[in-house]
Automatic annotation (TrEMBL):
One GO term (biological process): purine nucleoside triphosphate catabolic process
Identification of the protein by name: dITP/XTP pyrophosphatase
GO molecular function annotation: dITP diphosphatase activity; ITP diphosphatase activity; metal ion binding; nucleotide binding; ribonucleoside triphosphate phosphatase activity; XTP diphosphatase activity
Cross-referenced InterPro entries: dITP/XTP_pyrophosphatase (IPR020922), ITPase-like_fam (IPR029001), RdgB/HAM1 (IPR002637)
Top EC class, one word: hydrolase
Reaction catalysis annotation: ITP + H2O = IMP + diphosphate + H(+); dITP + H2O = dIMP + diphosphate + H(+); XTP + H2O = XMP + diphosphate + H(+)
Chain's role: Pyrophosphatase that catalyzes the hydrolysis of nucleoside triphosphates to their monophosphate derivatives, with a high preference for the non-canonical purine nucleotides XTP (xanthosine triphosphate), dITP (deoxyinosine triphosphate) and ITP. Seems to function as a house-cleaning enzyme that removes non-canonical purine nucleotides from the nucleotide pool, thus preventing their incorporation into DNA/RNA and avoiding chromosomal lesions.
Length: 198
């Protein structure tokens, strides 16, 4: 099960895991618990463990965010509801307003992917992507803060890349690659030992 209602994340996860023989079922109408954790790990585990318990199937969840150096690491785990803005465009505008006149544009994306089993075991995979923030959005292919973010060593924003290009270097792509390294020979098995990959 994919424990997310975010269409952009679903697309990235399905693309990343296309090479393994897994059946990835969408969440459907199952509501997710509110993200009340103080870390990405806590939020992802809440979602994955809830869905695994409710469905009796292994469940995969991601929690991710952007950490802006000049803002002391904000918005972090609150990236999806930064400034209580309603959508990605409004959150991007709000972030740019907070950074107006700020020379330091360094930031990083962080993703934690949790694979939870009905018996309570969890596997944790983490990925990070450093980069800089532009003064205005570029590109139409991404979601979230992708139009503002240029990864280190790149000249394009994540929103100017294809899904495959983004996955090859993104924070979520890194975390999913670590998951694949563990599960490349088969599907998740109930009762498997906990795994952490940083």
């Amino acid at each position: 099960m994919l424990a997310t209602g975010n269409a952009g994340k679903v697309r990235e996860i399905e693309e990343a895991l296309a090479g393994v023989n897994w059946t990835l079922s969408p969440l459907g109408g199952l509501p997710l618990p509110p993200e009340t954790g103080r870390t990405y790990e806590e939020n992802a585990a809440m979602k994955a463990c809830f869905v695994a318990h409710m469905t009796g199937q292994p469940a995969l969840a991601d929690d991710s965010g952007i950490e802006v150096e000049a803002l002391g690491g904000e918005p972090g785990v609150y990236s999806a509801r930064f400034g209580n803005r309603e959508n990605d465009t409004e959150r991007n505008v709000y972030l740019l307003e907070k950074l107006r006149g700020q020379a330091n544009r360094r930031a990083k994306f962080v993703s934690v992917v949790i694979l939870a089993y009905p018996d309570g075991h969890v596997e944790t995979y983490r990925g990070e992507l450093p980069g800089t923030l532009l003064e205005g959005p570029r590109g139409d292919n991404g979601f979230g803060y992708d139009p503002l973010f240029v990864p280190v060593g790149q000249t394009r924003t994540l929103a100017e890349m294809t899904v495959a290009e983004k996955r090859a270097l993104s924070h979520r792509g890194q975390a999913l690659k670590k998951l694949l390294e563990v599960h490349q020979h088969g599907s998740p098995v109930r009762g498997a030992p906990p795994v952490t990959r940083d």
